[in-house]
Design goal:
2 copies of one chain form a homodimer.
Chain A (H helix, E strand, L loop, with lengths): L1 H5 L5 E6 L2 H10 L4 E7 L20 E5 L1 E2 L4 E2 L11 E5 L16 E5 L10 E5 L1 H6 L10 H6 L9 H16 L2 H22 L4 E2 L10 E5 L3 H13 L14 E4 L6 H15 L4
Parallel strand pairs in A: 1-2, 1-3, 3-6, 6-7
Antiparallel strand pairs in A: 4-5, 7-8, 9-10, 10-11
Chain lengths: 278, 278
Amino acid sequence: MTPMNFLTQEETADYLVTGSWSKKAIAEAKRFGKTHVVCTSEDRNFCYIPAERKNSSNPAYVHFTSNNTIYGTQFRSEPETPDGAFLVCDASSDIFSRPIDIAKYGIVYAGAQKNLGPSGITLVIIRRDLIERGNPDVPTMLSYRTHAEKDSMFNTPPAFGIYLMGLVFKWLKQLGGLEAMAERNAEKAGRLYAYLDDGSLFRSTADADSRSLMNVTFVTGDAEKDKQFIAFATNEGLDGLKGHRSVGGMRASMYNAFPADGVDALIDAMQRFETGCV
Amino acid sequence: MTPMNFLTQEETADYLVTGSWSKKAIAEAKRFGKTHVVCTSEDRNFCYIPAERKNSSNPAYVHFTSNNTIYGTQFRSEPETPDGAFLVCDASSDIFSRPIDIAKYGIVYAGAQKNLGPSGITLVIIRRDLIERGNPDVPTMLSYRTHAEKDSMFNTPPAFGIYLMGLVFKWLKQLGGLEAMAERNAEKAGRLYAYLDDGSLFRSTADADSRSLMNVTFVTGDAEKDKQFIAFATNEGLDGLKGHRSVGGMRASMYNAFPADGVDALIDAMQRFETGCV
């Protein structure tokens, strides 16, 4: 929806390409205007967040994907936004996992299914002035203006999902809010990364400065052994560890709702597998 | 999505305008190509389904809204579709309330929230050859081809809603399927219409040959009395009877899930209100 509402044929939008979702996002933007790649980490299968970046001279907006679930990488801070442009973030897989400085953003959008609630809803946070500025000739249902004017009730809203999201927000507040979640998530992922860095069998696939606190990707370096570990772990009740087919290996997804003792259980299983006590 | 996928600037799409949803549908279609009004009942505030109709000479498709919730009208049968065109139906408010001859349709789409399950899902039934024929230059997410090729899992599907829809389908089958639902719905609405036609105080607003089995709209003819009845009925536990602001009066929505004794309770309340035993 962002390019449809905010990009014209004459304008350029800047994209930071750090994984499959940003690749999909830039492909859609090409239908509406010009695009510019600020940086890409495709050369090393997206295992890092590039530090070297170059914006175009006058972009309409700058788009990034804050966390890349498949590749286990995450932005530590917001990319630069040239004067006159606004920042757009696909925060689907790390929204509300940590506080962000919302004043830096023009649009944040996030599918609910990772940290917010059930699949089937997208949360959008948009700056008021952008609602006004959007392209007026957009199908009604796909215009941010429509949804803002109707208080998100232009169409029958997905009431059950919104209700569940409300419960999740209350739960987040009870736990101490986003500051507390950030600590919790850093602690959970930190423990697993520490084990990976110490361990002899498993290693993290993402560069140290780009590691995600939501999705920890790791390998043994031997595809056959990876498979054996996944089978072993599944049998121990640790399900869903298989990495995405485009990277292979393992992926431990540790969204807000994932408990700290789940990390303990995973590390324990990895240790036992490594030492042969299986 | 239908005009976006199937209408070009040079083509014409035919619309039967029988209420606010078909008006909205034709307005969106105008963004993509030419439109033609086959018939409209706006002259009498959409209280009937016009019998007189005129298709354009070579439409891409013919679009109709099978049931009009606000105005309490419903098509008895499918409109004619000229050779070379296909039929498109917005069946949001009466899908699975009765059997239809699906071979007559090119596309049926229906928001789930009336007869299928929770809000937030749209069910689409589309003919295989149309999937292939659709405009290739459409945003990926808005192309029928995308969803068909990925078995409706291009994006993370709204799993909870789909699961609930599955339960509703099983329930429909248990009750005897769509034939049984059609009988049940005809019986429920028939009883209320019979009372309206006999009664002296209340009268049905839709023409007899156009009446909806899902939404029965009625008035006393006196806005003040309507208001009194709604307050009385609400007090009796009969909620949601207020008609849409564009028609006023009362509306009894009796979707598949609405029980037959709910109709008894409504008629009983109407009788007591009418005879002054309140």
